[in-house]
Write a structure and sequence with these properties.
The protein is of the alpha/beta class and 263 residues long. Helix content is 50%, strand content 16%. The structure holds NADP nicotinamide-adenine-dinucleotide phosphate.
Length: 263
């Protein structure tokens, strides 16, 4: 076996936990299932307790270790509880900051509270999770932070300026954080990696977070116009590939689109 294989295996078989936010459905639930199937204990954070518990039970029924923490990424105490659960499962190896909403509306009908909520969940909530994870990861001198951004962070979509702005901020934050953590590594700080994932269209419940009915229909039409959109498992496999890379390999930014998506 090559040294790189040994390192991959040691990362894969780590008993350190992964915390996945927004794990009650979609990309987060698929990622939790994928990482748990590879032997990682997983902590699931999301607001809808029944859905979250169902994902945890599914993982446990398959022989995995899963702990559900019903809570909200905008609330620091929820995030602290999830981090504590990961510590109790052997330490936080991986944070997948995935929770997000996309409550689009035409500019003329946009509500400032909805703009605030989009920033609160997609950006501030993500920052809460990263901020709460850093002390542990810096102490352990190893860890992976995966931030779920979007192609909306690099291109424009109609009536989606605030959502796009939050995703652009997530992508740039991830790249800056990567450099800060890499500097610690070069000073003997171990392996602390940051990866950003920018998916195109994935078949999930995200469109349901659009309260404006005509806008929701328009986005549904756009989503359905793409032949063979991504499934949550496609993104989950990408995340698993990133965190299972040998420790000296840092996969920083992955754009993943359905093959038929033209923009
Ligand atoms: N689907 C796509 O086409 C697509 C494309 C690019 C990027 N993304 C990004 O991928 C991520 C996951 O979305 P998805 O597509 O899997 O959609 P989804 O099925 O709607 O999942 C979103 C998850 O976020 C959770 N969530 C929302 N607000 C939360 C909060 N305040 N606190 C904790 N959890 C919260 C939801 O759970 P609860 O409601 O139970 O809290 C849910 O589990 C998002 O960041 C999204 O922007 C999606």
């Amino acid at each position: 076996m090559e040294p790189a294989d040994l390192m991959t295996n040691s990362m894969t078989q780590s008993t350190h936990a992964a915390l996945i936010t927004g794990a009650s459905g979609g990309i987060g639930a698929a990622t939790a299932r994928q990482l748990a199937a590879q032997g990682r204990p997983v902590v699931l954070l999301g607001r809808r307790a029944p859905e979250l518990l169902a994902v945890a039970k599914q993982i446990q029924d398959q022989g995995g270790t899963a702990h559900a923490v019903p809570g909200d990424v905008t609330q620091e105490d929820s995030v602290a509880e999830a981090i504590k659960a990961a510590e109790d499962l052997g330490g936080l190896q991986t944070l997948v900051a995935n929770a997000g909403i996309m409550p689009l509306a035409p500019l003329e009908e946009s509500d400032l509270n909805i703009w605030r909520q989009t920033v609160d969940v997609n950006l501030s909530g993500l920052l809460h999770c990263v901020h709460a994870s850093l002390p542990l990861m810096l102490k352990q001198k190893r860890g992976d932070i995966i931030l779920i951004s979007s192609v909306a962070g690099r291109q424009t979509f109609p009536e989606a300026s605030v959502y796009c702005a939050t995703k652009a901020a997530v992508t740039h934050f991830g790249d800056c954080l990567r450099v800060d953590l890499a500097r610690r590594a070069s000073e003997g700080g171990g392996h602390l990696r940051v990866g950003v994932v920018e998916p195109g269209i994935v078949m999930t419940e995200l469109v349901d977070s659009i309260p404006h009915a005509p806008m929701r229909s328009a986005v549904e039409k756009f989503v359905n116009s793409v032949e063979e959109p991504l499934q949550p498992e496609d993104v989950a496999e990408t995340i698993a590939w990133m965190v299972n890379a040998p420790p000296h390999v840092s996969i920083n930014d992955v754009v993943i689109r359905p093959t038929a998506m033209t923009r």
